[in-house]
Amino acid sequence: MRVRFQVQGLLLALGLLLSGASLAAKAPVLGEHLEYTLKFRGLVTGFVEMNIAKMTMAVEREMGRVDENPAIVTDLHLTTEPYRKAEMIYPVRLHYRSWLDANKLHPLVAVKSLKTREEKEELLWFDHSQGEAYHYQSGELRGGKNSRPPKNLQGVTALSDEQWENLLQAHQVSFGGIEALDYISFLHRLRSMPLKSGKQINFSTFNGKELNAYQVKVDQERLVRAGWNRPAFRVRMWEVDTENGKKGEMVDLWLSDDNERLLLRFYAERTFGAMEGILETGRPIGGRDEGFSEATQSSLETYLGF
């Protein structure tokens, strides 16, 4: 089984977050701190649901600045450290820090540190004035350029001289008139856009290598899961091939239908396993659940003949 799904699936799920809700949502809340539990079910777990990671998404209390642009600074942390079995299978330490334009909520710069059995650092720079996105990473590059990020970004990101010297340009992509977002700006755009059931939205993201197109469909339903019992929007998202219009695999997200616009749950199922994320912050204790998750129910039906 491709256990890397634990990280890549998470990032994809976060990257599928562009739409809004029927109520007027607020801008990112300075000081917000949300905690999630990630669950996985697949061949490696004997098709039994298992907690594999803790994730936090936060907005720093103080505003930042990138050149002349006031910026909202966000942090995403993911770790398998609390779970011994996950640590044995595939240990992960992920930190993604992103600076978003305070007015347009598009990304200006982002730093990603990922440690599994290897360690890699990356920097994404969105040069909106020139319509270009740049990807820099540490380590030896094949076919990459020797140029480093603009020096002024070192002060923004607070990277050490050693970290900075290790970053070399790997990719450069032209927006081509498309507004490219990063995964975290998706989420905050989602929380600030109007949304209604049946709405469809198209958007693009820069993943460090290329621009990817996505399609979103929104429906309304009540989320009753893991103690939550709350009106929500179910956001279904697919990556779309721009040449033939073919849709890729689907990811579902549930966002609260209120002025908080919280990401309550996300879920993605593949042939080799399924991942679910549940918001722990504010989760009611002792609330009634609807029963098995999609992952567990599918396993019971397929493997136990229920």
Automatic annotation (TrEMBL):
Domain of life: Bacteria
Keyword tags: Signal
Signal peptide from the UniProt entry: 1-24
Pfam families reported in the protein's UniProt record: DUF3108
Protein name listed in UniProt: DUF3108 domain-containing protein
Species: Candidatus Thiodiazotropha taylori
Taxonomic placement: Bacteria, Pseudomonadati, Pseudomonadota, Gammaproteobacteria, Chromatiales
